[in-house]
Every structure is written in structure tokens, then in C-alpha cells.
Amino acid sequence: MTVAVGDRLDPVAIPITRTLVVATALASRDYQDVHHDPDLARERGSKDIFMNILTSNGLTERFVTAWAGPAAVVKRVKIRLGAPNYPGDTMTMTGEVSRVDGDEVEVSVKGENALGIHASGIVVVAL
């Protein structure tokens, strides 16, 4: 794979379903009620349950490794969360190669939903 700074990854749209939010929170052992109980999430000031950071991190990593291929090794993931991912929305992942150093590639990533940027940051992979 030949990679250059400025290469863009194909966008990926991820439907944010209630099942995705609940199942991934439970799979990552995050039992906080704001990730599975709509009534308690509203009591705490949210409009609904919302995706946890471990899921956002995993989806970001998966977005880049799907592009980089099965031989890629993830070296670092660093994201910042913004707008919550609520059920019924879609998060669209985009990315661009921001650094190439030998076999190490840094990809700047962004996940956006209807409320704005949900996650932004970098993923570094060795190809």
C-alpha cells in the first residue's frame, strides 16, 4: 500500500442504534445507567442514553484499520469527545493521512453526527 500525506479515507456512516449503544457499553463492562436506561439518563440531564467512550474509541480504531488492512498494527489512538451519539442518529467517520514516517502512518480522524463532532483525534498505525 502506497500512502501519502493528504490521502483521504473513504467516509463510513455508522447508524447509532439503541442496540449498538447498550450492547457495546455492556460488552466493555461499562454499566453506567446513562448508557442503557433512558429514564435515568434523562434524570441526569441527557435527552436519552448515549454511546460510551470505549465504543467511540473502538469505532475510531476500526475505521482506520479497515482502511489500513489486516496487517496493520495500531500504535496509538488519541481521541477527544464532543457531541454525544444518541440512538437514531448516524455518525459519519472521515479521515486523512497527516503524517508518514517509514511504515508508521498517522491518520487524523473525525466522527460527526447531527449535533456536530462526536469524536476527533489521531490513530497511528504501522503498515
Fold and architecture overview:
With 127 residues, the chain is of the alpha+beta class. It has a domain at 8-17 and 51-126: Thiol Ester Dehydrase, Chain A (Roll), CATH 3.10.129.10. Helix content is 25%, strand content 41%. It contains three helices and five strands, in the order βαααββββ. The protein has a five-stranded antiparallel β-sheet. The longest helix has 16 residues, at 53-68.
Give a brief description.
By secondary structure, this protein is α+β, with helices and mostly antiparallel strands. The chain contains 3 helices and 5 strands; from the N terminus they run βαααββββ.
Mind telling me which CATH architecture of the domain at 8-17 and 51-126 this is? Roll
Q: How do the SSEs run, as a string of H and E?
A: EHHHEEEE
Low-confidence stretches: none
List how many beta strands DSSP finds: 5
Radius of gyration, rounded? 16 Å
CATH topology-level fold name of the domain at 8-17 and 51-126:
Thiol Ester Dehydrase, Chain A
Taken from the alpha-carbon principal axes, the silhouette is elongated
CATH level 1 class label of the domain at 8-17 and 51-126:
Alpha Beta
Q: Strand order of the main beta sheet, please? A: 1-3-4-5-2
Structural class based on helices, strands and sheet pairing: alpha+beta
Portion of residues in beta strands equals 35-45%
Number of helices: 3
- CATH-wise, what's the superfamily of the domain at 8-17 and 51-126? Hotdog Thioesterase
Biggest β-sheet, characterized?
5 strands, antiparallel
Question: Can you give the helix content as a percent range?
Answer: 25-40%
